C-alpha cells in the first residue's frame, strides 16, 4: 500500500491513457474517497488543466446527482483530485453484469435528467456524457454524474477544427457540433445528444454507430441517421424509441430543449409501465418548453449558395483546383456559409484549414496562410498515430528533399514533424523567392491529393497583403497541383476593380485559365428574417411578423446584426416567455422606441459598453493586438497578472463577444482568476478570438481617436520591454506593427533609432520570406525615423536600411524608388564595398527590366572602381589580345592544378567577381563581344587571388570559348572538367545549374559522346529549381530536350518530355526559352504527323510567319539560326532540295548566333548535304563554289571527328560518300556509305543511320542495283520507324512504292504517338464533362495512358481486360475480335471475390482464341446484335427486362447487369466487349458508360497499334530470316560454283589422259608383241642385252606393264565418276521442276562427304548402309534436294562425332557412363548412317538415320526454328534444318519429319510427291 497526497491507497479502480483512479482513505477519519491523478510522472499542462477544471466546476455544486469534489491536492509533479466515494460503479460496468429492465432504465434515465437539469441551471455543459461517467450504486441504484474535466462554464463554446483523434469527449458519444465540423457553437444541448447515444447503448447493447475509424465515426454523427432502437430490439416501446431518436437529432434545435421536458416524458413512460404493464405511444416533448432564449444557428436563405459550394468541392475531390470567391457585406454570413463544406469534406476524408487576414496586421507576410498550415500541422498531423506520423514524415521529406528549412522558417511547427533540417544556402533575392515558391508548392501537394482533398479558407481577403496574394496566385496557377479548393471571403463594398485581389483574379482568368467561381451573399430577405425570428421566439410565423419587420428595418437583413439585435432585446428584458403558449413575446412599442444605431459597429460598441469598465479596457487592448490574441500578450499590455487579466476577460467570455480558441482558457476558470496561478506549473499559451470582425472593430472604436496612437505606442513599448532579446526576432512583426502606429509620438532620437533598427529587422525577415512589398513598407518606416544626421550618427543602420530598401524596391518592381535610394547610397557611402552593394542591386534591377545596356554601363562603372577596366566598345582585337594574355598566363600552368588554388579572401576582388558574373547575362544578349572579356577577367582574378563561387562558371565559360571560338578542344575540355571540380569544393551551389549546363552543353560534346552529356542537364535543371535559378533551369530543360532530339531519341517519348518541360517553362515565365522549345517541338510534330509544306515551320506550336519578325526585331540570332537550321533539315529530309539549299544560305548569315553548341556542326553537316544535293543541277562555275564550301565544311568536321568520333565521324563519312557519288567514284561511295552507316549505328544516332541508309539506297537505285537498293532503303525505312518519324516513313512509302512494296503490303503503319493518343483522348473528355460531373477523369487518363503504352498484343489484351473490369465494376468480361472472318473470344477476365469489398481482390485474365460459335458462356444473340448494329447495349436486369431474356445463356444463368458494346477504329468495328455483373442490377451507370466509351476509344487505337506492332515485328523477323537465308543460299551457290569450276578444270586433262591411256595400252601391247618376236628370232642375245634384261627384270615388266596401264585406266574411270557426281551436285536449277534421280543425288552427296566418313585419329569410320528401293524419277528441284541431303547427312556425321567425343572425354576423365543416358552405352565404336528409300502411295520417302546420341522432346520442338542450333557457339548458324524444312514443305509440298529418342539415335524422313504441276520458283 502507498499514499498519494497523504491519502492511503486501498485499490486501483480504473486506468486510462491520461488518468489513474484509486480508492483510498482520508487521513484522520479514514473516510473512503476516490483519488484521480494523471497517468504520467510528468503530466502535460492539458492534463493538469482538466483536473483543475473538474474541481473548479463541481466544487460549488450541491446537487445530489453530481459527484462532489472534496479537494485538489499537490502530488509530486502534478495534482490529485479527491472526490466523494458513494460506493458506485460505472453504468457501463454495472450493465455488463446486471441487464437493465425497462423500469430500471426509466428510473436511471430520470435521475440523469435531474442531474442535467441541475447543470443547466448552473450554466454548465458537461461535454462527456457516457456510461463510463455515470456512476450507480449497485444496491440503491442511485445515479450520479462524474468527470467534469472538459466541462465548460460558458453558455456557448466554439471548437477549433482538429483531428478526430484529438477531439474533446469520447468519439462514440459526441454530438455533431462537438466534432468541430458543424457550423454552430456548442451549448448545453450537446449533452442531450450524448445522453441519447448512452440510452441507445443501454437499450440495445450496441452503439448507434459502430466504427473503429475516427473520421468515419465523425461523418456518421454528422450525416448518418441511426437505426431506430426498436428496429434492433422490437420489445423497446415506440415512445421510448422516439425519445432516444429525438435526443440524437443532428441539429440541436431538433432535440429536447430542456432536461425537464425529457424527464416529463420518461416519467410518463414509467407511470404507464407501472400502472398498465406496457407503454403506449404518445406525443412526446409536450412539456419541453425552454425558459432560456436560444437563437437558432442554422443558415437561412442560403440553399442555392450551399449547393454551389458543394458542387465546387465535388469538382475538387475529382481532381481539379478551384478558387471560390464569397463576397458580401460584413456580418452577411460568409464564414458561416463556408463552414457548410465540412460534411462533404468528411465523406472524402479531406482537410479543412483556415486563416484570417487582420486589418491591424496587414504588414505580416503570409500570416493567414501560415496560420492555416500551422493549425493543420498542430491540430491534425501531430495528433495522429505514430504510424501515420511516420508516413507524413516520409512524404514531406520526399517532397521537400533537403529544403525543409524553407517551410520551417515560416511554419516552425513543421520541425516537430521533420526534425532538424540542413541549413539553407544563401541566395540572391530573386533566386530565393523562386526557391520559396517551388518548395511551398511541393509542400502543398503533400496535403492536397486524391486521398484527402484540401480546402483552404481565407477570410477577409480585402485586407490581404500583396505577398500573400502573389503566393496564392502561384498556387492556383500550378498545373501540377490538384484536389485543392481555395475559398476566399471578402467584403465587396471594400474591394474596387483595381484592388490587388481583383487584379490577381483577373490575371488568373486571363492568363492561367484557373476555374474561378463567385458567390454573392445577399442580405436575408423579409421572409428569411421572419423565419429566423419565428424560430428564435418559438412561435408561428404569423405571430413573429410584426417584430421581424422591425428587426428587418433595423438590420436590413444582415444575419449577424439580426442575431445580435435579438440578443440585445433579450438582455434588455424586452422578451419574456409565455409559458401558456410556449413561445417568447415582446412589447412592440418598447422595441420601436429603442434608439439603437443602424450601424453594426456602433451598435456593438453600445453592447460592449454594458460590460464592466475593466472588461472594456481589456477588450480595447485586445482589439489593438488583433482578431486573435493570447492572454500573455494581453496581460503585458494590460499591466496586470495573467489571472487578473483573465478575470477581467471573463465577462466578455460569458457575453459571447470573445471566444476561447482551446480548452486551455480553463486554466484560469473563475472570476478572480487566481486559482490558475496557484498551480506550480508552466503557464500555457491561452488563445482567444473576437466573435466577429465587427466586434473587434467595435472594441477598437471605444478608444478615442486622439488616444489611438498613444495606445499603440504604449502597447508596443510594453511588449518590447517584456520580450527577451532572443525572442525579439520571433515577435518582431507584432512589436513593429504596434510601435509604427505610434511612431509620430516618439521624440527621442534614441527611441527612433531603436524603432528604425526593429523595422530593419522586420524588413529583413519579410524579405527573407520573399514578401518584398511588406519588407519595403517596414524599411520605409525605418527610413522615416532617421534623422538628417543619421549618416554620421548611425552609419551602419542608415546604410543597411537604404541598401535593404533599395533591394526590396527592385524586387517589388518599384524601380524609381530603387534609383532614388541607390543614388543616396552612392553619395553617402563611405567605403567602396558599401557602394558596390548598391551597384549589384542596380545591375539586377536593370537586367530585370530588360535594360541590358544600362546594366552593362553600371557594371563598367562599378568594375572601374574595383580596378577592372573594360572597353566601352569591345572588338575582335580586344578578344584576340585577351586570348593572347590568357595563353601567356596559362603557358606554364597545368589546368587541373588550378583546382588547388586557395579560396579567394580579398573582399574587393570577390565583389569584382560578383559584378563580372552579374554582367554576363546582359552581355550575352546585348554585347556578345564583351562576354569573352568578362570571362577573361574572372579567370585572371581567380588565378591571382584564388577560387570563389563565381570561378566555377568562369572556368566553364572559358572552356566554351576555347572549344567554340579558339578551336582548342583539348584545353577547353580540361577547363570544363576544372569547372566541375571547383564546383564540388563550394557549399554555395547558386551557380551549379549554369556551370553544369555550360560544361555539358558547350564543352563536353566536342570530345565525348553527345548522349553522355544529356543526363547531367537534368541534374542542372533540378539544381536550378532548388536554388531558384529559374532562367537556367529552363535552359537546362530546353537543352536536354533538343540534345535528346539531336542524339536520336525516340520521337514519341521525346514529344511527351517536351510537352512536360514546356509547361514548366511557361510556369517559370521563361518566354524566350519556351519559344525556342516550341520551335523544336514543332519540328518533332512535323516528323511525327507530317505537314503539307514540311519546309515551312508552321503549326499549333510554332508559326515561323509570326515568330520570324519577332526574332528579327529583337536581333535574336540564335533563334534565327535555329529556325533556318530546322527548315534546312526538314527540307532536306523531305527532299525539297532547292528549299534546303536556300535555307542553308540564309542560315549561314546567323551562324555567329551558335557558339560551341551542337546545332553548329549539325548545320555544317546538312549544309554540305544540301549543296551536294543540288550540285549536279548547277552551272560549272557554281559547282566549284559549292565544292569549295563543302570542302571547307568537311575540314571543320574532320577536326571535330578526330576529337569526338562518336558525334561527328559518321557525318564526315556520309558527306564524303555524297562527294564520291557526285564525282562518280562508285567504289569510294559504297565504302563511305557503309562506313557512315556503321559509325552511326555504333554511336547510336538512329536517325542519321537511317539517313545514311536512305542515301545509300538512292545511290544504288540510280545505279540500277534494285536488290541492293531495296536492302538499304528497307534499313532506312525501319530506322525511321524506330525513330517514330511517321511522316518520314510515309514519305518513303510514297517515294519508293515498288521498292518497299513487300513492307507496305503487310500494312505496317507508323507507330501511334502517345501524345496523339492523349491529345485525342482529351478532346473526347472535354465533350462529355458537362454531362458527367462524377466522372473521375484522372482515373480515365491513367487507364488510357496505361493502354497506350503497351504494344505487345498479348500483354495489351491482358492490360485491357484488367482496366475495363476495374473501371466498369464488372465481374466477368470477354473481348471478341474478328479473325479470318470469324468472331473469336480473344481474351476473358474474371474477378475472384470471396467477400464484399470496395476493391478488386484479384482478376484472372486469359487469352483463349476460341471461336464464338463454340462457346456457351455468352448470350450469342445479344453479341450478334451488337456486332451487326454497332450499338451500346446496357441491360439493368437481363433476366426480366431484356428482349434477349429467351437467349439460352440468359435463361440458364439469369445474369443481372449486362453491358455489351463495340470497339470501333476509324469507323469500323474491330472488336466487341461483353461485361457482366451478377451481384446487383443496374451496375453499369451512365457515368461508367462514359468512362468505358472513352476507354474503348483508346482501346481501339491501342489494339490497332498492338496488331501493327506485331506485324512490324514479324516483318523484321522475316527480313532477318530472308537475309540469313540469302547468305546461306549464297554460300551454297558459291560452293556449287566452286565445285563446278573444279570439276571443269579436272575434266579437261582427265579426258586427255583417259583417251591416251587406251592408246598407250594398245601401243604397249604392240611393243611387247614385237619384243617377243625378237626373242623368238634371236633366242641367244649378246651379253650386254642379256645383262640389261636381267637388270630390268624384263620378264616381270612384260607381265606387269599392261596390268599397270589397265589399272590407270580404271582410275581415270573412277575420277570421271567423281567429276560427274560433282557436276550433278552443283547443277543450276532452272525455274521449273524437272525429273531427277534421287539416288544419284544422294550418292553425289555421299561422295562429297566421303572424307568425313573416313576414320581419323581416335574416331572410327562412319559406315553408310544404303537400302535403295525401286523408286521412279521424281519431279523436283534437284539442286535444292541435294542441299537438303547435304544438311541432313552432315548433321548425322556431326551427331555421331559429338557422341564419340563425349564418350571419349568421359572415359578419359574416369567418369561413369551410367549416368549419361544421352550417350549410347553399347557399340560406342560403331557409327552407322542408314539411308533407305521407298515409295509410299504417291510419294517417295527418303529415310536418313544415325545411331548417335539422339534428342530430347524439347530439342525436337525447336528443331526447325530459324537460328536454333544444338552445336557449340561458332559451329553452327541454326539455318540448315530451317532452310531444309522450307525447301521440302514450301517448295516441294512435302514433309520433313524427325523421330528421335535420347540414346537411340535420330531418323529424318523426307516425303515428297512423285508428280507435281510445274511451278515457277
UniProtKB/TrEMBL annotation:
Keyword Ubl conjugation applies: no
What PROSITE patterns does the entry give? Answer: HIS_KIN (PS50109), PROTEIN_KINASE_DOM (PS50011), PROTEIN_KINASE_ST (PS00108)
Q: Which reaction does it catalyse?
A: ATP + protein L-histidine = ADP + protein N-phospho-L-histidine
Q: Where is the Histidine kinase domain?
A: 1541-1812
Family annotation (CDD domains): HisKA, STKc_PknB_like
Q: What is its EC number?
A: 2.7.13.3
This protein's UniProt keywords: Coiled coil, Kinase, Phosphoprotein, Transferase, Two-component regulatory system
The superkingdom of the source organism is Bacteria
Gene3D superfamilies hit by this protein: 1.10.287.130, 3.30.450.40, Histidine kinase-like ATPase, C-terminal domain, P-loop containing nucleotide triphosphate hydrolases, Transferase(Phosphotransferase) domain 1
Stretches assigned to coiled coil: 829-856, 1505-1532
This protein's record includes keyword Phosphoprotein: yes
What sequence ranges are listed for the domain Protein kinase? 7-270
Quote the InterPro entries the UniProt record gives. AAA_16, GAF, GAF-like_dom_sf, HATPase_C_sf, HATPase_dom, His_kinase_dom, HisK_dim/P_dom, HisK_dim/P_sf
| Catalytic class of the enzyme | transferase
Q: What is this protein called?
A: histidine kinase
